[in-house]
Amino acid sequence: MNDERRGQPLIDAVAGDEAPDSARRRLLKMAGAAVALTLAPGVTVLARDLVLKGGRKARSPVRYGLLIDANACKTGCDACVRACQDYNGLSHDPGPDNAQWIRKVTITDPGTGFTRSFPVMCQHCEDGACVDVCPTGASFRRPDGIVLVDKHRCIGCRYCLMACPYKARSFVGRVVTDQRPWAPRGKGTAEGCTMCVERVMAGKQPACVAACQKAGHKAMMFGNLHDPKSAIAVRLSKVATTTIRADLGMGPGVHYRGI
Amino acid sequence: MTKVAYREIAGQSAGYWAAVVACALMAAVGVGSAFYMRAEGHHVTGMNNQIVWGMPHVFAVFLIVAASGALNVASIASVFGRSLYKPLARLSGLLAIALLIGGLWNLVLDLGRPGHILAAVLYPNFRSIFAWNIYLYTGFLVIVGFYLWFMMERRLNPHTHKVGVLAFLWRLVLTTGTGSIFGFLAARSAYDSAVLAPLFILTSFALGLAIFALVLVAGFETLGRPVGARLLARLRQLLAVFVAAVLYFVAVYHLTNIYMAGHRGIESFVLLNGGIYTGLFWLGQVGIGGAVPLVLLLRRVPRDDTTRLRRSLLAGAAAVVAGGLCQFYVLIIGGQAYPLKMFPGMVVRSSFYDGVVHSYIPRWPETVLALSGVAVAALIVLIGVRLLPFLPEGLADEVVSAHGARPPAAEAETAKTAVGA
Predict the structure, then answer these.
(1) What pLDDT, on the 0 to 100 scale, is given for residue B193?
(2) For residue A194, which of B150, B215, B303, B333 sits 20 to 30 Å off, Cα-Cα?
(3) What is the rounded CA–CA span in Å between residue A154 and residue B50?
């Protein structure tokens, strides 16, 4: 731009150039409008969440969770995994594209040789990455803390599989057979541990916990983390436990002892 | 002053129709592949519960990032007032739309349930950057559509600047959003970095301009329309600057990761011992996508040697495109191949492939789907330039020089009268 062109109302019909001051003002105005337009929907939704729901951290009277004692979990035992597969109609074949709602993980400290083996499943986080990243809200957390996938809303984008730090989500990449009425699955959708929600609603324990107790190991405990009188809450108040990747701040509902 | 004349291409030649049919066939094969994947499940692809996103996503992200970059040429003209680029603005807008649709084509057809895509519109979760991107992408298509209309409709020409600014800002947010798809994944060592957003923006500058240059120069050569040395030299120079900027951000991304002890594992994987990913990073991304184009584009060529300018621009741009594909392959596939760090410092084993580097071998269903996105983008460009006057009749030096020169006052008056009438 040059001085000769200042003040000319219209300069070049094809070029559509403008005087620099006016161009700058317009640029700023448009910048403001674009930023406002982009941010407005998100800010509104966040504000609604925070104001109308009284903040996300409001304590629900019920939060189901698990305590897994790695010291009591027996290496080589996979009763919990088998029970989950049988109860929920999952394949026993650990192929790379088969779902594994729960798996036994063995960790070894290369320096000391310390080894532990214990089950890992969906950690039913308070602020789960899977819930945050899901574009349709199919991945959701119930008020009682159980994290589920709404099969009707899931579009199969697999962003939750990318985001979960626990590798707890699986994608159904095959035609599913032998489905259980209480554990509906869908080809092309994401899925994960449901904490056997229908058993829990019926006052029972998740299948994995029941199997562990039946096997006599008592390495898994289930209950309401928010009820100070529940066995799990009492136990958590007495022994040192941790959660996996606590540094991520997602607030897992599955606690571990001995790792 | 010389006004730039735009004209549709005749589109009668056998070559044109062969290209259209080839692209349409490829697109149809992509649709067929999507149906096959939907019917059989994704187990027919190389993707699984370890490598969750594969070839379609590499190409989708590549095309979407390139789309926002392709619009830069128009932005340089409308927003930053560089008249030299003004005759190229229409093609820039068309390419942006075509590349974005090609990328979305890949993304949507790869979904587990593409038929349910409306759920993303009906039940958006605004905590998800994916949900935001759906609006950013559709908004981009609408805004660039208006932008093209304002450029082509003479009465609206004086307002092109405003729409251009909006489109430019929108594309910056869009690429930030695309980079954030990965940048927000705190769980994965390769992605947990805010540098990814600016890196994606710079990559879009380079990729978009490279694809634009390839289409422009190769297309004009086929059509027999001239491209002058001045424009070629300018595009060469600009592309070199963008390539250097991408390399800078790649260096920042890796150096910051190396500095953080927790991320050194992924860095040694990508930079030293990641097998194919290390090879693709050094040879593909840095070598072919960075060093080669810099040498080709910065080498001194006489200002009037159109042939050499054209050749070096084409070769440099092709290298940038190849390097860009390697870059996204390393980031997307390599980032997933490296195991999740659930228990830092521990050796981890499980039946679910914890603690091991995952392998990915693309199979034909997802590979043809990935390529079909490119075919769709090409098809849109081929049909677009035949139906509407996107391409200038010529870009010889005298045309662009005259167009870029300051108009004398008398001519400005004439222009004003013309618009007023």
Answers:
(1) 85
(2) B333
(3) 19
Among A28, A38, A126, the residue to mutate for chain B (most B Cβ within 10 A): A38
Nearest CA in chain B to A37: B170
Domain assignments of chain B as residue spans, ordered by start:
22-416
Tell me the per-residue pLDDT of B51-77, one tens digit each, with 9 for 90 and over.
999 999 999 999 999 999 999 999 998
- Confidence label for B11 from pLDDT (cuts 50, 70 and 90): confident
Kindly list the residues from chain B whose CB atom is less than 8 angstroms away from the CB atom of residue A42: 126, 132
Q: Count of A–B CB contacts within 8 Å?
A: 250
Asked if the Cβ–Cβ distance from B185 to A135 is below 8 Å, we say no
Q: Say yes or no: ipTM exceeds 0.85.
A: yes
Neighboring chain B residues of A165 at a CB cutoff of 8 Å = 186-187, 340, 342
**Per-residue model confidence as pLDDT tens digits over A73-130:** 999 999 999 999 999 999 888 788 888 999 999 999 999 999 999 999 999 999 999 9
Q: Which domains does chain A possess?
A: 3-52 (no CATH), 64-257 (3.30.70.20)
Q: Is A203 exposed, middle or buried (0-12, 13-18, 19+ CB in 10 A)?
A: exposed
Contact list, A19 vs chain B (CB under 8 Å): none
Q: What are A129-160's pLDDT values in tens digits?
A: 999 999 999 999 999 999 999 999 999 999 99
Please report the pLDDT score of residue A58 as a whole number.
67
- For the domain bounded by B22-416, which CATH number is listed? 1.20.1630.10
CB-based contact, B181 to chain A, within 8 Å: yes
Q: Each residue of B58-90: b (16+ CB within 10 Å) or e?
A: bbbbbbbbbbbbbbbbbbbbbbebebbbbbbbb
| Chain B residues touching residue A85 (CB < 8 angstroms) | none
Phi, psi of B406 (to 5 degrees): -70, 135
